[in-house]
Amino acid sequence: MDNQRLHLDSNHILVFIDSAVENHEDLIKGVVPQAEVIVLTSQQDGVEQITAALQSRDRASSIHIVSHGSLGTLYLGNTQLSLSTLNHYSEHLKTWLTPSLLLYGCNVAVGDVGEEFLNKLHYLTGAAIAASTTPIGSAAFNGNWELDKNLGSVEFHPAFLPSTMASYATVFEQTNPIIVGDKYYFTTYDNTHGTELWTIDPNTGNPVLFADINPGSASSNPSNFTVVGDILYFTADDGYSGTELWKIDANGYPQRVQDINPGYGSSNPSNLIVVDNTLYFTASDGYNTTGLWTIDSYGYAQRIQDSGGLYNPSNLIVLGHSLYFTAFDGMNDNQLWRIIPSIAYPINLSFNYYSGFSNPSNLTVVGDTLYFTATDGYSGTELWRITSYGYPQLVQDINPGNASSNPSNLTVIGNSLYFVANDGDSDTNLWKIDANGYAQLVEVNGGLSNPSNFIVLGEKLYFTASNGTNGNQLWRIDPNSSYPISLNINYYNSSPNPSNFTVVGDTLYFTANDGYTGTELWRIDANGYPQRVQDINPGNASSNPSNLTVVDDVLYFSANDGYNGTELWKIDANGYAQRVEVNGGLSNPSNFIVLGNNLYFTASNGTNGNQLWKIDPNSSYPINLNINYNNSSPNPSNFTVVGDILYFTADDGYSGTELWKIDANGYPQRVQDINPGYGSSNPSNLIVVDNTLYFTASDGYNTTGLWTIDSYGYAQRIQDSGGLYNPSNLIVLGHSLYFTAFDGMNDNQLWRIIPSIAYPINLSFNYYSGFSNPSNLTVVGDTLYFTATDGYSGTELWRITSYGYPQLVQDINPGNASSNPSNLTVIGNSLYFVANDGDSDTNLWKIDANGYAQLVEVNGGLSNPSNFIVLGEKLYFTASNGTNGNQLWRIDPNSSYPISLNINYYNSSPNPSNFTVVGDTLYFTANDGYTGTELWRIDANGYPQRVQDINPGNASSNPSNLTVVDDVLYFSANDGYNGTELWKIDANGYAQQVKDINAGNASSNPSNLTLVDDILYFTANDGYSGNNLWRIEQNSYAKSLEVPGGLDNPSNFTVVGDSLYFTASEGVNGSELWRINSTTNSPFNFNINPSYGSSNPNNFTVLEDVLYFTANDGYSGTELWKVDGNSYPQLVKDINLGSASSNPSNLQVLDNVLYFNADNGINGTQLWRIDPNSGYPNPV
């Protein structure tokens, strides 16, 4: 090293600018005077260019490198400097002698990868280093010029003039970068062209717009880049022909391959996959359902057909020289198929010779073997593989005979396949494929039952399971040992209930309870062991972190520190939990949605009610997106993401509740005032099919209809020739939307919409009356089941075939009688339901592996099953076997045979009731015949366990009013000493009295337990002030809500939004309507009858966030009133004019319409309805 290079020029700044950076000429012109600029050409190794430049120059006071960047990576010339290449370039880097090295690349310092990259670069160069965890560049693109991650003492000599940084019009960030031959393509956004395809000019090294496919500022959104030979295929929307398949042709220009769905409709090509230089993809031509397509030798798109067609292909996967996928052929249900490009036509690998229904799923490649689950009609659903000949082979009949082991959670670690299955002898357990290709049970002492939450991180498998002793625990499998290691973190060897698993970079976060500090946030450290992040709510109280959401490698979540209530938190750059603060706080954040680099959520700042907020990715500071002109709550809800657009409903205080969206700048914009003026269209049932949004709404002129967003972004009502009224039961299956509606001629019918076709298809199949009355729509795998009548066979179970049309499953109650199927419930891939075959009581039925309805039988039968609850892939229900009365039963998805969970020692009915789920635990009350009626729960192995004999001996504590608040169960019970008081289940699973409100053996009789946000309200009598209103905030004690004169006999508790409405008397104004907002906790008396009399509010009924009720204001008699969260009560209409009463009663909501009885004083009592358009009542 020469002496000249050892000289440090304190005034010399070296700025290396990569030529791939957009508008880098503007940056060159805008450097500070003392800076020397060196441009890195895209045709050479950028690291070598920097080294060569430094060899001939004095040691600079600081070196600035301006380039595109990503996580732990700099793109320099035609190479990358990253963690994986640092060793390769180590000799070069040791010659980069400078006190300070500043890296201007987007997101280079993000996460553990970015930090490790900086540490190693610091070690090799010896320089202090500054880099960024955010995009660098224009604030208009969420960029900034702040290098917020530092190693060592960095001397910040600015490289660019302030005017340059302020005027620079993009960021140093690309998306979808891809190299084809000697061409480098990527997508990026600018204000002039939107998101389009760009490339690097080989002559200048500058980024240039390759093609403005959707001309002007609109975006074509190129994506799905796939290279076949020297051709680049991708999808894009040119603004005229919808989203179609494009390619870069031989002349280097973009060209639409074909308008597969002619006109404005989109074929939505997806699942692009290459086999032996042949491109396959799925798309819809607008006439048929989605099919499998390929590019033929002439460059045209061709649909691949079997003799009966191939519909809704999915699970596309390549193995060797073959493409495997699942699809319907028009004759059989879902099958496994194989295509060899040299043969072209599809080969049906069906192996269920009984019904043709093999239902292959969970396709997973391990090395050169394809594994999947399926049934051959003989051995149930088991694990299969593709042999070297390309045909299916049963790996093992794990659950012998026609029973199913139902393998699931197929997960690859190294060259090993792990999965969950049930061999019929025990609970669901963990299995693996051994070196000889056999399925082997993974055993530990006590077993590993009900494994779930599989997460692969750093070649390690993490999951939860129970060993029969310590409840549900976190486990780890290293790829070399394959033996599960228990990561138990509970000091009392109880279940820590690990949940909310979320990966951020190479760190796994989750929530758990160690039995000492309550439920807090944890993470897996670098050695693979659990570590508590922080005791957010100090001591044994719980902060109950939830809504774990990752934005730009930053973890956000909600938690309660015991002082500020439930607020927004994040993990800062040092790994600590930090509360995100704004003036007034952010209470009860929810509806966390990530869109682009932004986090959207709802929360209350204590002033304007529940609002929409956005986290600025640069400052991490929440921005209030309040859209209500009256500074009241707009009640944002129904959040739905379609592509890169967030839709939601809100009320701006001027145009009623309408459909809104987040625009390109990240701010809310009303889509359309569907019901013009102050009226609300009340959009609801938002649902997405193939990137198309559907919803129900009313325009103020017609009844509620089905709407969609067209290609121009406007809301359009979907009509049949006779209209479509009151659509409901919206459900997606494959690429179709199914729903029920009236068409103006027939009663309720089943309809289908395919977005590529657009118009609705009537699936009516009652040719006698046109009234099929479809209901109970339920999806199982790729089949839609529902109940309906065809006019001949009564109300029975139906399904949608592979053609998309209705088919009777079975006439369970033969002839025109009805079996009336109900309680349709899905466990695994099985459908259970209740029906009556006409020969016996109502019984339990299931759909078997061949698609037939089968009676679920036990000795004595199972009559009148009810209380269906799904918990941990098990079905719990109550039924009678004719001997022991009403019992609790369980069905495991693998055995399908009901197991009696009888807990009564005398084989009498334990009368199980009050079923309540808390996290992954089912609580209920029952009588075992020995300890009376007490609180019980289902343990980790699926068996009943008494929580505690609260009232010792054979007396009963009679738990009731079971209510969940932030994963804590509250209830009322009598321990025999303190009377009936309020109790809860503590962090260790024990029953604990909250407070002896009525001291001694008297009872406070807590009742009306009602949850509003995170606050529990209830009524209780302390023995001094009568039956009053009380509240419990999270981790606090019961407190009485004091008002002057007290609150006598609160009742009619009803929650609307974040408010609790009830009736009570404060001793002066009689029985009136009161409201408590969860942010203020101060009861407010509306005093509808101001003349010291009672308005006697009653008949509380909620419709679309509005509370309807009856009341008497002292002038108009007893009439119908309403109130929402932002206003005072209003008289809907004085139906019986003057002081006489119309006495509205029997308030009922049907299809978003309120019906009631009332007497207008002329026509007697009639049926009335609230017109959904005008909001006024009219007789029906």
TrEMBL record:
It comes from the Bacteria. Residues 14-171 form the DUF4347 domain. This is DUF4347 domain-containing protein. Pfam families: DUF4347, DUF5050. Residues 500-789, 818-1066 form the Prolow-density lipoprotein receptor-related protein 1-like beta-propeller domain. Signal peptide: none annotated. SUPFAM superfamilies: 3-carboxy-cis,cis-mucoante lactonizing enzyme (SSF75011), Putative isomerase YbhE (SSF101908), Tricorn protease N-terminal domain (SSF69304), YWTD domain (SSF63825).
